[in-house]
Amino acid sequence: MNGKRITIYDIAEELGMSASYVSRALNDHPLVSEKIKEKVKKKAAELHYRHNSQAANLRRGSSKTMGVIIPHIAQSFFSEVIAGIEEACTENQYSLIMCQSHDSYQQERKAIDVLVRQNVDCILICLAEETQSTQHLEAVKNSDIEIIQFDRCIDKVDTYKVMNDNSEAALAMVRHLVAEKYKRIAFIGGPEHLLTFKNRKAGYIKGITEAALNIPFNYIVENALTKEAARQAAIKLLSLKHPPDAIVTVSDVQALAVLQLAESMGIAVPQQLGIVGFANESFTELVRPTLSTIDQQSRELGRQAANVYFKNILKEDVKFRKDKTIVVKSKIVMRQSSQKKMVESSKTKAGQFSQKA
Amino acid sequence: MNGKRITIYDIAEELGMSASYVSRALNDHPLVSEKIKEKVKKKAAELHYRHNSQAANLRRGSSKTMGVIIPHIAQSFFSEVIAGIEEACTENQYSLIMCQSHDSYQQERKAIDVLVRQNVDCILICLAEETQSTQHLEAVKNSDIEIIQFDRCIDKVDTYKVMNDNSEAALAMVRHLVAEKYKRIAFIGGPEHLLTFKNRKAGYIKGITEAALNIPFNYIVENALTKEAARQAAIKLLSLKHPPDAIVTVSDVQALAVLQLAESMGIAVPQQLGIVGFANESFTELVRPTLSTIDQQSRELGRQAANVYFKNILKEDVKFRKDKTIVVKSKIVMRQSSQKKMVESSKTKAGQFSQKA
DNA sequence: CTGAAAGCGCTTACAG
DNA sequence: CTGAAAGCGCTTACAG
């Protein structure tokens, strides 16, 4: 509004003291008396003074700002992660800047650029589906900005990694399906170059092997993370001569695609087809049947990722840092889409399911 | 990693030229030859130089950064708005910093503080449900940072405002319900100090008046924006001696609360109760019955809000600026939850609805 | 308890 | 086409 910006010099002048002293008063320096602090702050408010972090950061060399890059803010998994990160930032008086990559490698690069230019102290990143090249991550590592991967990580990039027990979670899901008497369990996966999806697949394979199920090679579809790709994959699976009676996915969006497809094809879920997702998105309990899934403890995942910076990195000697993977335990959430037995017993009892199985 | 940060002075020294010239080369100044630009950029990359926006901004006085504050990133309405803002920012080579208020006044204040300190050029804000005091907004107005309200606005704060045709949208909804032969149409609203909700209510009242419906005073519930508040409001409404046969809400979350309550009470939707929401959240077409709602054209709303800054403010003479409200037209989305007639006719034809109406 | 001075890294009139 | 110099607004050793 008014032309010139108010600085500590203006306050100093009005109050007949030095700018350095004003700066100390404003920053609650212990050697400045309460009385003076009050006086200075009052005058600052009066003049509509506002602190300029950029100048302070430039001088101090640290911005007390953390950056986070996620594929999509619209998914509740990510917004929960963000909530966890926000908590940790607030506790440590850090600001948070968030960017989304929209699962695009190009936009991810741009986001990194924005954060680097904003001089954040640390970047938390959950990689875009597309990301295979790692030079943008290596470039950050070559700067004095810390970078921490979470959820979707590339193994060979040597950073702290905060991830779920993905393999165990997928294994637990397969065991659950086996217990529910599903026998022909297929898999729709994500891009294998991301450790996360590789591990989920490994868990699936382990479960299949453990149960000694005989799975045709074409029951395993890789790299179908988008809703449309998952839909196409499911169409293929369900039109096989011997279609699967259950489908394990690596994300709730995929599971939703399968569920909607099944509905449109008149396939009864869970009776004819069991479906399980991953992430415990908020929509999973709104759809019918409700979707069985994995609760990734997203808020906790976010907290831990941020705390790697606040605790492991800020408080430890840089020289002794080593690559380290932090594992956040997940929980299986069993709902209707995979509980064949429950439906069958209730059908016998009450007959409230009218579709034939 | 390495101790000292690389600056343009380091590049200048290595190349035997001045820092100013390096700066110009890096910024594609027209008076620098392509050859030299290339040389400088190559050396910059080689030295892992990274531009320091903070220093540049400090010098330049503008950060080319926009800030946005929304209540929750987890709602698809807001993430779509953000997408629209991102588009406009990208087109104008601006960075975007987003913050969420979690509908809390305190957190909204903090968010403003963060953005002011980051020296953003402009703040776009959708107010928290709680926000009644406006001094934090006035404080921004007293600085050289522009502030633009969108979606949820306080009328008396003199800024550009970008909003939907909220009154018309609510009116259209009531007309639709009337056409569907609903007669006892109740209303669950939001906080009236926010213009948005005031307008939606006005539209509802207009529709009721227009249809000459006789509505008891207790059919109108105000200030019940959270899911739980809406649920409580619906419980009261539905346990009246003469309960409503339709409920108009001002948000999809409220509508979802009503829908879930109806389901648990065994009330058939839309046959016994019509329900309409607002915002066209992504879950509205996942629930059963699907929810009728208002498509707020959220992406366009975001674009327009950002463009008020890029077009109206940046390109016009500041002195001639006036308070102005930009209206984004919404669209009614009719789905199952309010279409009694369709259900009834299909029931007659095929008898596929088993619940009694 | 208080101040003078330097410097963070950049851009940009000014001068040549 | 190129450089020297000032200054954006702050913090912080250093000195008293």
From TrEMBL, chains A, B:
<keyword id="KW-0804">Transcription</keyword>
<dbReference type="InterPro" id="IPR028082">
    <property type="entry name" value="Peripla_BP_I"/>
</dbReference>
<dbReference type="Pfam" id="PF00532">
    <property type="entry name" value="Peripla_BP_1"/>
</dbReference>
<keyword id="KW-0805">Transcription regulation</keyword>
<dbReference type="GO" id="GO:0000976">
    <property type="term" value="F:transcription cis-regulatory region binding"/>
</dbReference>
<keyword id="KW-0238">DNA-binding</keyword>
<dbReference type="InterPro" id="IPR001761">
    <property type="entry name" value="Peripla_BP/Lac1_sug-bd_dom"/>
</dbReference>
<dbReference type="InterPro" id="IPR000843">
    <property type="entry name" value="HTH_LacI"/>
</dbReference>
<dbReference type="GO" id="GO:0003700">
    <property type="term" value="F:DNA-binding transcription factor activity"/>
</dbReference>
<protein>
    <submittedName>
        <fullName>LacI family transcriptional regulator</fullName>
    </submittedName>
</protein>
<dbReference type="InterPro" id="IPR010982">
    <property type="entry name" value="Lambda_DNA-bd_dom_sf"/>
</dbReference>
<dbReference type="Pfam" id="PF00356">
    <property type="entry name" value="LacI"/>
</dbReference>
<feature type="domain" description="HTH lacI-type">
    <location>
        <begin position="6"/>
        <end position="60"/>
    </location>
</feature>
